[in-house]
Amino acid sequence: MRGASVVLHGEGASSARELELRPAACFAGAVTSTGVYPPAIVGPVVCAGLRMEARAVRRGLAATPVVVVGYRARRADRLPAACAALVTMGFGGALDARLRPGDVLVADEIRGGGDPVRCHAVPLLAGELIRDGLSVQVGPLVTTDHVVGGAERAVWAEQGARVADMESGVVAECADGRPVAAVRVVVDGPGRPLLHPGTFARGLMARRVLARTGPALERWAAFLISGAP
């Protein structure tokens, strides 16, 4: 069985340390080089598709674990068995021109897995991101198994979707009734295709924005844990 890549922050763990743990044992008191892993995680867990997304997100996190679930969430078996919520974070492609590169979409609904999944405490999460000076919009997110481009963007936009990604729907299906949330920073969109020389600069900008999302997420998590509405 391949190891799960889990990042811990806070007391007893460096900000960039990755612990290689067995997926089945990650949340069952597994013994690691730094001690006994907690039997359950009290707060949310961030799910990032790519390591570059995970590195950007964790820059702003103090205590929230990050799990790399892989491209198209092919390693969804790394998801924890117990936590307060699953939050997918990373880059996405805009489906309408109202979202520009560097904008943040907080999903109110995740489509593309099975039935649409409603996201948890969306106004609170969006408000905390806005409080930190980010350009935030709210709307449906759709998960596909390929990069969306060209006329396909317009098709999804006509159905009300705002951003496309390739992981959130898979993660939401694995939530087993736990609250879910999704935060995506726009890299490409109508008139700004992914396969374009300008993508590199847009990607750097999106990565800087993604690195600023952590504090807002952890304030949102504090409300989630406290049971505030």
From TrEMBL:
List, alphabetically, the SUPFAM superfamilies matched.
Purine and uridine phosphorylases
Q: Which InterPro entries match?
A: Nucleoside_phosphorylase_d (IPR000845), Nucleoside_phosphorylase_sf (IPR035994)
Where does the signal peptide begin and end? none
Q: Which residues form the Nucleoside phosphorylase domain?
A: 33-191
**GO molecular function terms attached to this record:** catalytic activity
Biological processes per GO annotation = nucleoside metabolic process
Gene3D superfamilies per the UniProt record, alphabetical: Nucleoside phosphorylase domain
Matching Pfam families, A to Z? Answer: PNP_UDP_1
What name is this protein filed under? 1-hydroxy-2-methyl-2-butenyl 4-diphosphate reductase
